[in-house]
């Protein structure tokens, strides 16, 4: 079932969460299966958890939208996601 869902890039019919070996694979799979957006154009938000949404990591396309909006405070300039040797996101 996983193979069919990933090949079709439509995860909803699988009805069970897909598992990946690490964060790098999870991010790549999410980008591959997200409504046809090219990875470099994807509007992505990463939050620590739903109880702590005071700070967010956003993708560069979103950064370009909000960087001059006074209702947001930009804490750093855009940078690439950083993965460790096992492919997991570094904090």
Low-confidence stretches: none
How many β-strand stretches?
2
Cα end-to-end separation? 32 Å
Overall 3D geometry? globular
Number of domains: 1
Percentage beta strand: 5-15%
Please tell me how large the radius of gyration is.
Answer: 15 Å
- Class by alpha and beta content: alpha+beta
Summarize the main sheet: 2 strands, antiparallel
Q: H/E element string?
A: HHEEH
Q: Looking across the biggest beta sheet, what order are the strands in?
A: 1-2
As a percent range, the share of helical residues equals 25-40%
Number of helices: 3
Average pLDDT reading: 86
Please, could you describe this protein's structure?
This protein has one domain. It contains 3 helices and 2 strands; from the N terminus they run ααββα. The protein has helices at 2-8, 23-32, 60-66, and strands spanning 45-49, 52-58. Strands 1-2 form a two-stranded antiparallel ribbon. The longest helix is centred in the first third of the chain and has 10 residues, at 23-32. The mean pLDDT is 86.
Summarize the structure.
This protein has 91 residues and is of the alpha+beta class. It has helices at residues 2-8, 23-32, 60-66; strands spanning 45-49, 52-58.
What is the strand and helix layout of this fold?
Blueprint: H1 2-8, H2 23-32, E1 45-49, E2 52-58, H3 60-66
Antiparallel strand pairs: 1-2
Distinctive features:
91 residues, 3 helices, 13% strand, 2 strands, single chain, 26% helix, two-stranded antiparallel ribbon, alpha+beta
């Amino acid at each position: 079932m996983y193979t069919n869902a990933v090949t079709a890039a439509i995860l909803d019919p699988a009805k069970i969460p897909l598992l990946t070996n690490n964060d790098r694979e999870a991010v790549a799979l999410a980008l591959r299966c997200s409504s046809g957006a090219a990875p470099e154009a994807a509007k992505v938000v990463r939050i620590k958890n739903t109880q702590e949404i005071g700070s967010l990591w956003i993708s560069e396309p979103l950064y370009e939208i909000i960087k001059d909006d006074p209702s947001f405070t930009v804490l750093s300039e855009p940078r690439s996601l950083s993965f460790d040797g096992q492919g997991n996101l570094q904090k």
